[in-house]
Specification:
Layout: H1 3-20, H2 25-35, H3 40-55, H4 57-67, H5 78-93, H6 99-113, H7 118-133, H8 138-147
Helix pairs in contact: 1-2, 1-3, 1-5, 2-3, 3-5, 4-5, 4-7, 5-6, 5-7, 6-7
Length: 173
């Protein structure tokens, strides 16, 4: 597992702890790393996410609310809610990380820590968040441009690279 992947996992655990208690992000971060070893790059990335989510929580939650039609944030499973916060914050602030990577990593966290339905739910909501934010990966943008009338490339850009959202309740292969 790469440094950012382990950082995201640590960030999820810290966000979960942050939501359960009355401590600040700084105290949760300090306590977490006192008990858990981590490589410096993953640790730095995790800390950045946790601090960012705490700082931008209202904006992050509002973004999730808009994307999660018929789901109140407060009624979501705690794990799902925090995976969504992590992924939404990254989509809002992680310009160097491709959309597909953020969605795939979030889905993996949901599979690992959530319920059987968590991964499809997280995938669907974060895909809507990404669309709402205008986050289109370069591969998807190039394929769309090539497929547009007058675009170069003669069609569909069959090289993959785009992220296909799962329908709610659908299983990914």
């Amino acid at each position: 597992m790469g440094a950012r992947s382990t950082g995201r996992e640590a960030a999820l655990q810290m966000l979960f702890a942050l939501e359960q208690g009355t401590s600040s992000a700084e105290r949760v971060i300090m306590h977490y790393w006192r008990l858990t070893p981590g490589d410096p790059e993953g640790r730095e990335y995790a800390d950045r996410i946790v601090r960012g989510v705490e700082k931008d929580l209202k904006k992050v939650d509002e973004t999730i609310r808009k994307a999660s039609v018929n789901w109140r944030l407060e009624r979501m499973a705690r794990v799902d809610r925090n995976v969504l916060r992590l992924g939404a914050w990254e989509l809002m602030n992680g310009g160097d990380v491709p959309r597909a990577v953020i969605l795939d990593e979030s889905v993996e966290l949901a599979k690992r820590f959530g319920s059987e339905d968590s991964s499809a739910f997280v995938n669907g909501v974060l895909d809507r968040v990404a669309e709402d934010l205008g986050r289109v990966d370069r591969d998807r943008a190039a394929a769309s441009k090539a497929a547009a009338p007058g675009g170069k490339g003669g069609g569909g850009g069959g090289g993959g690279g785009g992220h296909r959202p799962a329908k709610r309740g659908a299983r990914r292969p």
